[in-house]
Amino acid sequence: MLSHALSAALLSLLDSTAFANLTKSFLMKQFSPHTPGSLRMHYFSAAAPVRLLNAGHPLSLSKLVFDRAQKHALTHEREDGGRDGNGGGGRESM
Fold first, then answer.
1. Would you give the DSSP letter of residue 93?
2. pLDDT at position 57, please?
3. Domain segments of the chain as ranges
4. Looking at residue 91, what is its pLDDT?
5. DSSP state of 32
6. Could you tell me which residue, 48 or 82, shows the higher pLDDT?
7. Which of 15, 25, 47, 57 could form an S-S bond across to 53 if both were Cys, CB 3.0 to 4.6 Å?
8. What does the alpha-carbon distance between residue 63 and residue 39 come to, in Å, rounded to a whole number?
9. What are phi and psi of 23, to 5 degrees?
């Protein structure tokens, strides 16, 4: 697992500013400097799956990383046979 600092450095070199712009600090200091103390102001982000991104798209590298991580997790889940970690296969033993 990469450290947070190393991950941030790699993303800053390889990816767009999309992730940096989603931080609470950016939203409060840059995006909306006049409302950071307002309890009525809320920020939300939304995500949706995308099947294919052009290689030149700013988020294509991130998509590649997340897709591979998901594939890796699903492969290990299948290898475990869907067990619950207690050897019971997710069912209560009698």
1. -
2. 81
3. 1-46, 50-84
4. 46
5. -
6. 48
7. 57
8. 34
9. -75, 150
The residue type at 52: L
- What CA–CA distance (Å, rounded) separates 59 from 74? 22
pLDDT tops 80 at residue 27: no
Tokens describing residue 30: 């840059």
Place of tokens 């897709």: 67
Amino acid found at 89: G
Q: Tally Cβ neighbours within 10 Å of residue 15.
A: 16
In whole angstroms, what is the distance from residue 21 CA to residue 28 CA? Answer: 10
pLDDT digits (tens, 9 = 90+) for 29-54: 777 776 666 777 776 767 777 888 88
What one-character-per-residue DSSP string does 42-72 give? ---------S---TTSTTHHHHHHHHHHHHH
* pLDDT tier, 25 (very low <50, low <70, confident <90, very high otherwise): confident
Residue 22: both structure tokens together = 């989603």
